[in-house]
Structures are given as structure tokens and as C-alpha cells.
């Protein structure tokens, strides 16, 4: 199985899309409201928390299902998922939100 074929599996591409949605929400929030440190979390923070937490079971399912069958391609997809997650987490740590 090739990387592109494996990436068409929902358990492979959903975490990447979820991370990209988080990045889009972060940048929209930054553009609209600026980078603010509030005591009360807003909608963007809740969307961030829900989408990032919802990725965990999907990624675990993908790893359990595909690592034994196609380890090289599965590791490539897991690496892509990790890069997407780090892209979503980077603004939070950089701006200390």
C-alpha cells in the first residue's frame, strides 16, 4: 500500500484536517481579536480543546489498525499527523495562551 492510498483512509486524514481547522480557528481569532490573555476561555479555546482531544482516539485506532499491516506507510502518516498537531499547538506555546 502506498502513502497516498493510506492517506485516503478516514483515520489517516481526519486528524490532519482537524489540526488544520484548529490552525484556521487560531489565525481567525488572532486576526479578529488580537492575541489576548484572558482569564475566561473563549469559543476558539473550546474548539481547540475539543478538536485536539478528539484526534487522540482516531490516531490510536489508525496506529493499531495499520502499523502491523504497513509499518512504513503508517509511520509516514503518523509523522504527518504529528506535524499537523504541532502546527496547531505551536501558536499556543509561542504566545503562551
Biggest β-sheet: count, sense, barrel?
A: none
**What's the alpha carbon Rg, rounded to whole Å?**
15 Å
Contiguous uncertain segments of 5+ residues: none
- Count of beta strands: 0
What percentage of the residues does DSSP assign to strands (E)? under 5%
Shape assignment: elongated
The SS-based structural class is: mainly alpha
Explain the layout of strands and helices.
Blueprint: H1 3-7, H2 10-33, H3 43-66, H4 71-94
Helix pairs in contact: 2-3, 2-4, 3-4
Overall description:
The protein has one domain. 79% of the residues lie in helices and 0% in strands. The chain has four helices and no strands. Helix 2 packs antiparallel against helix 3, helix 2 runs parallel beside helix 4 (71-94) and helix 3 (43-66) runs antiparallel to helix 4 (71-94).
Q: Can you describe this structure in just a few lines?
A:
The chain has 97 residues and is mainly alpha-helical.
List keywords for this structure.
97 residues, mainly alpha, 4 helices
